[in-house]
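Student: Send me a single protein entry containing the residue sequence and its fold in token form, directly below this note:

Tutor:
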Amino acid sequence: MRHRIVALAVAGVLAAAFPAGATPPGPVPGYGYGDAPPGPTAPPPGSALDGEAWAWTQLTGDGTQIRYVSTDSSHTCPSVSYTYQGSSHTDPLSLKSLPWGSQFPTTVCEAEVRLTASDATLVPGTVRAATLHPSNRRLPLPNWTPGTRPARIGVIGDTGCELPLSSGEPAQDCANGWPFRRVANSVVSRTRPDLVIHVGDYLYREDPGRANDKPANPGCTDTPDRAGWACVVADFFRPAERLLATAPVVLTRGNHEDCNAMQQGGAGGAWFRYLADELRSNRSCSLFTQPAVIRAGALTLISVDTSLADRNDNGSPANLGPYTGQFDAVNRDASQAPGDVFVVTHKPLWMVKAAGSMSGAVTWATHVLDRAVADTQLHQLHRKVRLVLSGHFHLAQKIDFDSTRPPQLTLGSSGGPLDNGPVDANVELQSIGTPPQQVHESVTKLQAPAGPGIFGYGDLRYGGTTWTLTFRDRNGDRLDGSCRLSTSTDHRNFVC
């Protein structure tokens, strides 16, 4: 559970983030994107290879996209070749943004690739970066059809290396103790995923000057760097390199990717420039964005931006209205989905943080999201919603109610410092949510009763009729047995 707010509104930092002569775009409150032109005119393409580029495949509300970010001086986009319906195709990636000051010294490109395409490769000679990740230029594409679904899904969350601004708070050991690279590599080797879902919180380096891995991350070494591209690489891309070369990803916004006071730049600006469902060419950051409906064949993922939900984790009902509208939209989208629906949010709807043995002695989150669901026209999530996937709390936990309320999975234990969790026996039969419902079963993976969690991730596999969940540790080893998701819409639970 990490709820510090990244604030980069210091005038000197903001001034340094804009190129000379550029006019910062105005704030973009609430919904909306408000894209401005991508900044200064690009210089002529360079003749020599330079810079570093990262490419990956991301599922979005607009389909499967190949994304490419480079610091090379040519400011050009490469082309991708692939096979579709037995024919070879070569398409140029489209320019999304040009470099903008010290925070975003990058050219960002993307291209949509149709479902059932295969063998995607960046074309040699069109990549102007001296170093490319993945080095073989091959990009993973969906291996499902409109009528099938990914059979193996790895779920990770809260992955960054925590370096708080305050010297009074401990800094994580990024060089040796931070487990995200090992977790990501274990997803590759043990789960062999068709798809990876990240439930949010990527950028934890609030004070990169406290890091002990600075030599490996040039450009991410001091406080002004903290929400720049080099720190995005340090906190996410570099440790996830093998994972991004293995499977397409779905990325959900976390509260660490929040807006600063001016809704410009900062971690939120980096999110919208590089990782969001719809990329932006300026430094703007919106408080809310509409749910993204992401099709993975017959599986539909609906990603809800809950970065502003109860930002201090104190039970605040603020922003109930906007989230009620969002969950009404979730239910409308779910009603039109062709098959199973998973709702993906950073903050959970029904996660138990602590519980005593007495009735009512339970602390759970997130009340404003639970209330928003209860206030929808259906007063619950649509019956097609089989599962809620979340993070935020640095634990691995499964809660189900054996009712029309879907199970809640919290998988926020993939990198950041671990939280303490509840004793499961004290959670079961406790009533939470609106209306209150008894917890049928609680499974929380802890090192000791009521102690800290265990670093790891979630492994979801589809066996032809339903889904099986396995919690795995940082090495990919099973944490006890697997749980099978029921097929009933009236008794939605896991049987372990």
Notes: Helices lie at 11-16, 180-191, 229-237, 241-244, 266-275, 320-335, 367-374, 424-427. Residues 320-335 form the longest helix (16 residues). The longest strand covers residues 52-60.
